[in-house]
Amino acid sequence: MKQSMTIIPTLRELPSDAEIKSHQLLLRAGFIKQIASGVYTYLPLAKRTLDHIERIIREEMERAGAAELLMPALQPAELWQDSGRWYTYGDELMRMHDRHDRSFALGPTHEEVITSIVNDAVPSYKRLPITLYQIQTKFRDEKRPRFGLLRGREFVMKDAYSFHTSSESLDDTYQKMYQAYINIFNRCGLDFRAVLADSGAIGGKDTQEFMVLSEIGEDTIAYSDSSSYAANIEMAEINQEYVKPDAPPKDLEKVETPDQKTIAEVSEFLQVSASDVIKSLVLLVDEEPVMVLVRGDHEANEVKVKNALDAKAVEFADEEKTKELLNCSFGSIGPVNLPDNVKIIADQAVEYMINAVCGANEDGFHYKNVVPGRDFQVETYADLRFIQEGDPSPDGKGTIKFARGIEVGHIFKLGTTYSEAMSAKYLDENGKAHPYIMGCYGIGVSRTLAAIAEQFNDENGLIWPANIAPYDIHLIPVNMKNEDQKNLAEKLYSSLQEHQYDVLFDDRNERPGVKFNDSDLIGLPVRVTVGKKAAEGIVEVKIRKTGEMIEAKAEELNGVLERIFKELE
C-alpha cells in the first residue's frame, strides 16, 4: 500500500486525555480515532492489525473444532427476560425500543441468542457436542470509559459457546479451548498468565481468565512465589490456620469514641491493633440486608460473599440505607443487638477473635471485649476476605505475591445455567429431554490489540510482533524527487510484493526526519530505506525491535529479509 493512498494521521504531541502508553501510541501513530467517549474508529493500520489477530484466533478455533457463525448485535428483550438477565445485568446493558415499542438490547454477549439457536437447530444428542463462535462488535454502557481500547463502550470480541450431553464432554472442550487460548496469546507474543477467576454476570462455575501482565492492568493477580498457582485476587482462597488468643473473655463494655470512624482511628484511640477490631459492613444481597464481618486488618470480598450465599446480586449499602436499618452512620456499625431482619455472616478469622472491638450502632460509641458467639450470633463462617501479599499460597506452596494484569480472555463452564432458565433441551437416545450442558469462551480482540501495544513499545513508538504487524516492511525513499531513489523504491515495492511481503510504501513528499519519526512511531518490524546510495543499488535495512542497521544490495535484499523475519518469528 502506498502511504499517499491510505490514512495514517500521526500526531507529534501527546494526546491530553490519553493516560496510558497504548492509548497514547495508538492515537499518535494513527491507528485509532475517538468518535465519542469509549467509541473509536479503527483506522486502516488498526484494521489490518485486528485482521491478523482474528486470523490467529480463527486458525486456533478451527483447530479446536469450533465452527464460525455471525449473530445479530440487536437482541430482543424476550431472550434476556427468559434467562433473567434483563433484570439483573445492570446499567451496562444498552436497552432501546423500536418504532413498535418493542424492547431490544445491543448485545454485550450472546449466551441467550446462541442458546435459542441451538435449541432450534440441534434437538438431538446425535449432533452433540458442538462448539460455535463469532467475532463481532459488542456494546456495554461503561460508566467510565477509559484507557482507550481497554475499557470502551463498543469493542470487538470473539465469543464461543459449546453444548454437551455430559460434564465429561464439557471438560474435554474446556481443555481444548484452554489450550487454544494459550496458543493464541503465545502467537500474539504476549507475556500473560492463566488465572482462576469469577464468572461475574455471565454465570456458571469453574472459570479462568487470561491476563496480560502490565502495571496499568485493572485487575490484581495473586500468584505463588514457589509454584504455578495464579488467581484473580477476587478468587484466591485463604489457606491459613487461625489460633484463638489464650485469654479469658472480659465483660462487654460500651465506650465513647467521639469522631472516631475508620479502623485506623478507632485502633489508635482505643490503643488496640487493627487485627483486634471487627470491621462491620452492610451489603444488600439480592436486595436483602446482610452484615458481613471481617477482621480490621482484612478487606471484605463481595465476590466471595456472593458465592458463599449463592446470590445473584451483591452491593454495598449506601449510608442512607445503613442509617435506615441501624440508625447510625458508617464507622459505628456493629453486630451486637442487630435488628432481626439483618443476618450476620463472618469471615473465618472472626471466629477466632476474643475481647475484640466493634461499632455499637450508635454514632460516637464502640463496644470493647466483644466475643463472637456470646455477644452476637453468626449464621455462617466462610472465607470472605481478599487474600493479601505474604499470605500462604492456597496450593500450600510458597507465599502470595501480587501483579497487575489486563484481562484479554475468559473461559467458563456454564453448566445448565442458561439452558434451564430458557427451557433449552435435547433428546437423548431414549427420547428423554435434558437441558444442554454449556461452556462459554471469550477473547477481547480489540483489547488484545491494545495489550500488545502496551507491552511492545519504546520511547520512539510501537514495536509490533512480526505476525501481528499491519505491514511487514516500511519502504522509505528519502527523497521522492530524486530519480534514482524513486526508481529503485518503485522496483523494490513490486519485488517485495511478489515475494509475498506486505509493504507500506512511504511515497510522500515529506522531509526525511518526518518519515523516519513516523516509521518508528508506527512500529513495523523492518524498515528499508532507499537513500544516497540508491544509484549504487544499495539500501539500508533497520530492524525496529533491536535497532540493528544493515546495508544490502538491492538484488540481495530478499535473502537478507528472509533471515531477519526467520529470527523475528
UniProtKB/TrEMBL annotation:
Protein's UniProt keywords contain Iron-sulfur: no
Documented EC number(s): 6.1.1.15
Aminoacyl-transfer RNA synthetases class-II family profile domain sequence ranges: 53-465
The keyword Protein biosynthesis is annotated on this UniProt entry: yes
Catalytic activity: tRNA(Pro) + L-proline + ATP = L-prolyl-tRNA(Pro) + AMP + diphosphate
Domain statement: Consists of three domains: the N-terminal catalytic domain, the editing domain and the C-terminal anticodon-binding domain.
Gene Ontology molecular function terms on file: proline-tRNA ligase activity
InterPro entries (alphabetical): aa-tRNA-synt_IIb, aa-tRNA-synth_II, aa-tRNA-synth_II/BPL/LPL, Anticodon-bd, Anticodon-bd_dom_sf, Pro-tRNA-ligase_IIa, Pro-tRNA-synth_IIa_bac-type, Pro-tRNA-Synthase_IIa_type1
Quaternary assembly: Homodimer.
CDD domains referenced in this protein's UniProt entry, alphabetically: ProRS-INS, ProRS_anticodon_short, ProRS_core_prok
Main location (coarse class): cytoplasm
Name by which UniProt lists this protein: Proline--tRNA ligase
Subcellular location: Cytoplasm
Pfam families: HGTP_anticodon, tRNA-synt_2b, tRNA_edit
Alphabetically ordered keywords of this record: Aminoacyl-tRNA synthetase, ATP-binding, Cytoplasm, Ligase, Nucleotide-binding, Protein biosynthesis
Gene3D superfamilies: Anticodon-binding domain, Bira Bifunctional Protein, Domain 2
Record-stated family: Belongs to the class-II aminoacyl-tRNA synthetase family. ProS type 1 subfamily.
Function, in words: Catalyzes the attachment of proline to tRNA(Pro) in a two-step reaction: proline is first activated by ATP to form Pro-AMP and then transferred to the acceptor end of tRNA(Pro). As ProRS can inadvertently accommodate and process non-cognate amino acids such as alanine and cysteine, to avoid such errors it has two additional distinct editing activities against alanine. One activity is designated as 'pretransfer' editing and involves the tRNA(Pro)-independent hydrolysis of activated Ala-AMP.
UniProt organism field: Siminovitchia sediminis
